[in-house]
Design a protein that fits this description.
single chain; 388 residues; 47% helix; TIM Barrel; two-stranded antiparallel sheet; 2 domains; alpha/beta
Length: 388
């Protein structure tokens, strides 16, 4: 049997809000007692994680005094040193407090927008203090319930102005930090601006410092909209913008379920892992998920170990797919190229266009060719089921 033990080079990370989730939902109260950030770091050390990420208020309560904040940071630092856990990413909670009920950077109230900038600058300082190199922005309240309330052009401009301001702040402080924008179609707002990774990629190109800003795609958020997550990740990778990634699982068209990675759609998880490993993605594999509400903290450990183990199992399956002679022979046949069309591709020339327009294609014969995708998919399923 293969060794599926997580190692630092796998860069598996969890948020304080993930393993620290106490099981509260809209229909019921907590089922697990809260743990301190330091205790959660020790829990992650016990299960073999590489890193821990946090919102500012996961670590420091929003109303903490300076003395309380210093004590929490000291205990957190001690736990990091004890376990060897690192902090690759940080973010700001711009959605939980009532002040953000109509958004943060896109709020109609200029006082809210200014406070959001202040809070984010302080949170960036906190993240950098603990070593974060990536800073994620999830605009959980940046949206509407009624389009009477906001002009979307104003909202886009306000969001752009905020990103430009914060990029300038990072440059002014000489921080080694990049931003990653996280999309979600809805929840907790009825509609959220920039609802998919594709929207975020387009928005980034309008910023003053697009080279500083990438994306943080999340499995559940894209699946909520019925989108093929791996395709969105591939687009981000192709654009050089895959700065971070959130791994979990989700049934399409439902509320944000944040299931354990691979818990729902193992086939989609396989293709995602295969893509990340094939292209050589070297960033964090961050599990933005939480344990079932049925679990105690031993179950939370089972959840965390399960996320990492499933990734490693699928990584091994991806290597087997790439080494499977029958699968690879079939792929070679499917992608066969006799070179006869090569003169028509690449950079346009008038001569090439003229020659292509004159070429006679045997359309019925080409259209009649079977592509053997059924066989290929069945071989993939059998590999995943462990009979190959």
């Amino acid at each position: 049997m293969s060794d599926y033990t997580p190692k630092p080079e796998h860069k598996f990370t969890f948020g304080l809000w993930t393993v620290g989730n106490i099981g509260r939902d809209p229909f019921g109260g907590p089922v697990r007692d809260p743990k301190s950030p330091a205790d959660l770091v020790r829990l992650l050390g016990e299960v073999g994680a590489y890193g821990v990420n946090f919102h500012d208020n996961d670590l420091i309560p929003i109303d903490a005094t300076p003395a309380e904040a210093d004590a929490i940071k000291k205990e957190f630092r001690k736990a990091l040193d004890e376990t060897g856990i690192v902090v690759p990413m940080a973010t700001t909670n711009l959605f939980g407090d009532p002040i953000f009920k109509d958004g943060a950077f896109t709020s109609n109230d200029p006082k809210v927008r200014a406070y959001a900038l202040q809070k984010t600058m302080n949170a960036i300082d906190l993240g950098v203090e603990f070593g974060a190199k990536i800073y994620v922005f999830w605009g959980g309240r940046e949206g509407t319930e009624t389009d009477s309330s906001k002009n979307p052009i104003d909202a886009i401009k306000r969001n752009r102005d905020a990103m430009n301001f914060l990029c300038e702040y990072v440059r002014d402080q000489k921080y080694d930090l990049k931003f990653a924008l996280e999309a979600k179609p809805n929840e907790p707002r009825s509609d959220i601006f920039n609802p998919t990774t594709g929207h975020m990629l387009a928005f980034i190109e309008t910023l003053d410092y697009p080279e500083m800003v990438g994306v943080n795609p999340e499995v559940a958020h894209e699946h909520m909209a019925g989108i093929n997550f791996m395709h969105g990740v591939a687009q981000a990778w192709d654009a050089g913008k895959l700065f971070h990634i959130d791994l979990n699982d989700q049934y399409p068209g439902r509320y944000d379920q944040d299931f354990r990675f691979g818990a729902r759609d193992i086939k989609a998880a396989f293709y995602l892992v295969k893509f990340l490993e094939d292209v050589g993605y070297d960033g964090s594999r961050h599990f933005d998920a939480h344990a079932y509400r049925t679990e105690d903290y031993e179950g939370v450990k089972d959840f965390a170990r399960g996320c990492m183990r499933t990734y490693l199992v699928l990584k091994e399956k991806a290597a087997r797919f790439n080494a499977d002679s029958e699968i690879q022979s079939l792929l070679k046949e499917i992608n066969a190229d006799d070179g006869s069309m090569s003169g028509y591709f690449g950079k346009y020339t008038p001569e090439k266009a003229k020659s292509l327009k004159a070429h006679a294609f045997d359309r019925p014969a080409i259209g009649a060719r079977g592509l053997q995708y059924e066989r290929l998919d069945q071989l993939t399923v059998e590999l995943l089921l462990g009979v190959r």
